[in-house]
Amino acid sequence: MCSLESLKIDLKGLKQGVNTLCYSLDDAFFEALASAEITHGEVAVTLTINRIEDIFEVHCHAEGAVIVPCDLCLDDMQQPITVDDEFVVKFGEETSEEDDLVVVAEDEGILDIAWHLYESIALAVPIRHVHEPGKCNPAMIEKLREHSAARSDEETPEEIDPRWAALKKLKIE
Ligand SMILES: [Zn+2]
Predict the structure, then answer these.
(1) Is residue 48 within 8 Å of 71, Cβ to Cβ?
(2) Pair 9, 113: CB distance under 8 Å
(3) For the segment 54-70, what is each residue's pLDDT rounded down to a tens digit?
(4) Dist. CA 137 → ligand 1 center (Å)
């Protein structure tokens, strides 16, 4: 049982036991978060919230892809991501979040899941993300090659054919 719901969850409106909420996050979601680094993507999210009295055990599963700049050529690339995380929500005096415990102001009773989802998705992007081999922007790769070739002329290459090394020595002397 899964229907599309708002990202502001009315906790008091949830039934006791398991509640399942589904979201399709698209560009509009990422663009709506003003300071987000990821601005495009398509991610399907399933939230399972187990309510026991006024304690809410939340399991979040997200799967999809986001658009981020490639580390090598800087062109946009599609990065597949999967998220699985769990946290507990309870009511308190004011809203706060610490590790796996989220406190929601009891008089409001609203859990706003937007930033939590965004952060989990952003964390799921590997530190190094590059296009598949051969898919990088060829012009940029050519420039990088020229750059690294120029650099290795200045530095002494670590491994060099001993015959060339001997020739190089001759040239210098
Ligand atoms: Zn690339």
Answers:
(1) no
(2) yes
(3) 999 999 999 999 999 99
(4) 6
